[in-house]
Amino acid sequence: xxxxxxxxxxxxxxxxxxxxxxxxxxxxxxxxxxxxxxxxxxxxxxxxxxxxxxxxxxxxxxxxxxxxxxxxxxxxxxxxxxxxxxxxxxxxxxxxxxxxxxxxxxxxxxxxxxxxxxxxxxxxxxxxxxxxxxxxxxxxxxxxxxxxxxxxxxxxxxxxxxxxxxxxxxxxxxxxxxxxxxxxxxxxxxxxxxxxxx
Amino acid sequence: xxxxxxxxxxxxxxxxxxxxxxxxxxxxxxxxxxxxxxxxxxxxxxxxxxxxxxxxxxxxxxxxxxxxxxxxxxxxxxxxxxxxxxxxxxxxxxxxxxxxxxxxxxx
Lengths: 198, 107
Fold this sequence. Notes:
The structure holds 2 protein chains of 2 kinds.
Chain A: H1 11-19, H2 23-44, H3 51-64, H4 75-93, H5 107-118, H6 122-125, H7 128-139, H8 144-155, H9 160-167, H10 171-197
Helix pairs in contact in A: 1-2, 2-3, 2-4, 3-4, 5-7, 8-10
Chain B: H1 8-17, H2 35-43, H3 51-78, H4 83-94, H5 97-106
């Protein structure tokens, strides 16, 4: 092993120390898990919420539930689930947005929507940034768990197994949620199309 | 991985995936200064249980105990009275203090 390589983190050792009330070990645990937690927070937090506040909530939950952690899954997976559910709770707490109307879209977003509704090759030709904004406006219309499943599955292209590990939901539930969420989006597309034609 | 059938959503999602990352991946995972200390200071892990936490832990047991007591009282109340208790109750039924007072005042 090269000398300059860091030793692997002693997560189990830190956990034992933290359970005994060792604050230095708790800080090391936070520092070790922070990059993973902040990645989840940045991708899934409500737009109006500060990422640091949400990350802090996640770590506080982690410490308050540490007695429940039995080591059946890796700590990173367990913390990921806490992070994902905390983000879902934050999205739920966020005031529901008003109904999305065609008139609310920018010119580029309206063009992008028109393209994806009518052109088969829109995935390659549409304005990517406008599509990104439009996707988030549409996802904002969904329930937090539906939004989360589509974000993971269709945007981040995670596998069902990865989503199961991240969320703790079983595969059937993930498939059912994805199906329902896509159906809701389909209705939303139809609704917007009607508005365009009016 | 199975590809989605071509729908407006699948085309839009595919277009959105081409967008340069808005920060989630490009931003560093560096922790703000003092973050871990702030979290640890607020966490209060390993600290002795507060009364609230203690009550929270005991509440389900207390509920069980209270339910068992309530059930025992219902069973106790529905048991047939013993002969002695029935006689005592009967004596109480026949004694009417107000009637006694009225009788005395009228006479």
